[in-house]
């Protein structure tokens, strides 16, 4: 008899416990490698394996990762690429541990006991190794910021923040569409690369904005598979002409935009003559540190840049 | 030659012991074990020696230390030692057979073949599981090795190595063609892998590497006596019943297996195959077999210490093992070449 | 002049003219063909000096023409350098790529791009490249000749390859840690002729021309080598001095080529290999023939690099590697060391 009562008690006990503490639904995610990741509750102690494409989105969603991949300055101090510019957060302004640059310090990750590790497809860190330390989510940033943010919001439960960011961006794109009729305008994005031209199907944040707004592109750009880039001969420069041309320059260098123009001049002296956009003053140099980030902060700045570039000008 | 040591004979077998050589290898083994235990305790996350000893004696030490030791450090250092030993053994044998102290087996096409296939895999299917790499790498390495063997059939070992160089260049050019269209991030990832990295070290990799090492070293060390006879001179060896062609192709297979295996698990690690055998020759005079064993131990020690240096020198930055190895290996190689310039 | 000598001179002239014609044909093909389709009328406009603002004119005059010139100069320099090296070392496998010169040049350029000790104008790069090539090659020579009096071809190749591998390991170590330099140099590192300016040609052409003239002056002394070194010495040719001079000229030629188009390999191996009996009697005509064939070969490789996978442009060095490595294998198997 006694065992029966005991087992009954044991069976009933969880019901009470459940009543006392509301059960959080476990979160089931399918990541970009097709893996299923199950989290008991929204992740809070997160380790990021990629600064531009994971850490910045997390910060924007209102979750500070406990540790992140980063880069090294010449003086040896670590930084999160583009982050201070877009979010104000960096290793020196927030409590984020630096994990390393090329290879990240897996031992430090283990010691931190994160409840989620987020990595990106192009990172060399083996997913199998990360999985042994904590549940690991793999995102593919080539699928664009909105996709990455949806994935990260689902993992962290930051749906309100996501909704705000998304509606802000929707509004911005709507404004862009209303003001400048993108479907009637052509744009192109490229950068000089040692005697050749580097052209992307869509260059990260600027590419996303231009595609989302519905601009038209030169045939050369549309022939490139989505998410990829090609290096083409300088002879095809006129094929890249458009109403407005964007050239992401190295904004982290002292010489900055001037060096970019000099590089173009070196490939095609007097290149401006051969591009109608340039002759009309619409060859726009944009800072690469902003354009390269797949984040709503960067998208927002890119919308502003595009808007200014197309804004009508009084005679 | 047999003035030192004693010979043990039993039932048609004879083993010659040279106490000096044996002693040298014992010292090396001791150093390797010490270095291994030391590097178990060292890393970005400090673990006390007591904890390491408790873990070694299978005690309960808590989640963090046991994961760091069991999943990160132990497979990493095991793979470092195994790959070092594999490359050193392949190098020592190639140099002996070709009688050329500069014949680095990783330059004779096998590495390029394995690397080309794995890089193609990395670029075409970035999401492919890590476990697929050794399979693809071994296939590519073996194919390249067979191609060299076919092209060099009936020629001298020296020509064989030269043809290997040629094929290496050819395959590297194909690699360049592949990489020209690659995105800069993939390019860096590929270069990281090509330089050699132990980041992905795990137990299945360790199992594969040990299997290859055991098989190949069994083949090589059991043939070493014949190979030593081979050293006396082809005519004399032939009279002693050594079937040279057969011997050589077996050695070749073992070398290809070793190099392709090492490349598949740790990437394109260089220099070990050149440096370790030369360092082994600085030890007291040994038979070929025990010299190969010394080379293996030295190779293991080299890669292990390079990885330790990469982990500890620039904390919190961890360098992939290929970089410190190149930094240690480059000056060492030049020094060795200079010291042994008359005997290469 | 005897009739036989006159006959031989005649043959040389015909051969040289033939190769030159091929070279011109390739150059014209390269000028006509390219990623941009240019109508023939535009070429006529250029010749007639009309339509100055036309992009076609720009492509012809400022993209294709300098590229063709640079490739021809570099090819000639590399071919001559290979031949010079091979006669001086009596080693058919003597070639900048094989003996470590290219790897040395890359290492020097990568080092100085990543760690600029001083603000570097573009004109210094060729010097830096030549210096790097010279240092590594010097090391190869020193190590491979120490302890012996003669140049063992295999030994040199082995040392060249070992030191090349060493330089490459250091280069990739630097590039892994420095994404910017990697992006900047990724094409140059394998040899690429896109985007060569007239300024670069003007800066390096004199060096290449000087190298060629000096090489011609050295040929008579080198031809004495073929008689055997002892005999050459008794004939009064200072073997050591001639050899050193030949090596210095080789370094000069290689430096000029590398600074124009990057470390391109195997031209110096392929160009002499086209003419099987050239090594029996080195002469000025032989040198010129090799230089012309080198130029023609590199032009052909460049045409392939542009057209093979269009619109993607391959680095020229990848094409010469694909074509040159089999030639190396063939030479080794034929035991033509």
Summarize the structure in words:
Chain A is 41% helix and 18% strand. Chain A has 13 helices and 14 strands. In chain A, a hairpin with a 5-residue loop joins strand 1 and strand 2. In chain A, helix 6 (145-156) packs antiparallel against helix 7. Chain B has 13 helices and two strands; from the N terminus they run ββααααααααααααα. Chain B has a two-stranded antiparallel sheet. In chain B, helix 3 (63-98) crosses helix 11 (272-281), helix 11 (272-281) crosses helix 12 (288-312) and helix 11 (272-281) packs across helix 13 (322-339). Chain B starts with 5 loop residues before the first strand and ends in a 5-residue tail after the last helix. Chain C has 337 residues and is mostly helical. The two termini of chain C are 35 Å apart. The model of chain C has no long low-confidence stretch (mean pLDDT 83). Classes of the chains: A alpha/beta (315), B mainly alpha (344), C mainly alpha (337). Chains in contact: A-B, A-C, B-C. At the B-C interface, helix 6, helix 7 and helix 13 of B face helix 6, helix 7 and helix 13 of C.
Question: SSE string of chain C, helix = H, strand = E?
Answer: HHHHHHHHHHHHH
The CATH class of the largest domain in chain A, by name, is Alpha Beta
- Assess the beta-strand content of chain A as a share of residues: 15-25%
> What would the principal axes of the Cα set say about the shape of chain C?
globular
Total discrete domains of chain C: 1
Largest sheet of chain A: 5 strands, parallel
C-alpha termini separation of chain C: 35 Å
Q: Based on the coordinates given, report the CATH architecture of the largest domain in chain A.
A: 3-Layer(aba) Sandwich
Task: Tell me the major beta sheet of chain C.
Answer: none
Rg estimate of chain A, integer Å: 24 Å
Beta percentage of chain C is under 5%
Number of strand segments of chain C: 0
- Radius of gyration of chain C, CA atoms, in whole angstroms: 20 Å
Output the structural class of chain C.
mainly alpha
* Structural class assignment of chain A: alpha/beta
Which H/E pattern describes the elements of chain A? HEEEHEEEHEHEHEHHEEHHEEHHEHH
Outline of chain A, from the CA principal axes?
Answer: globular
State the name of the first-level CATH class of chain C: Mainly Alpha
Uncertain runs of chain C with pLDDT below 50, 5 residues or more? none
DSSP summary, beta strand count of chain A: 14
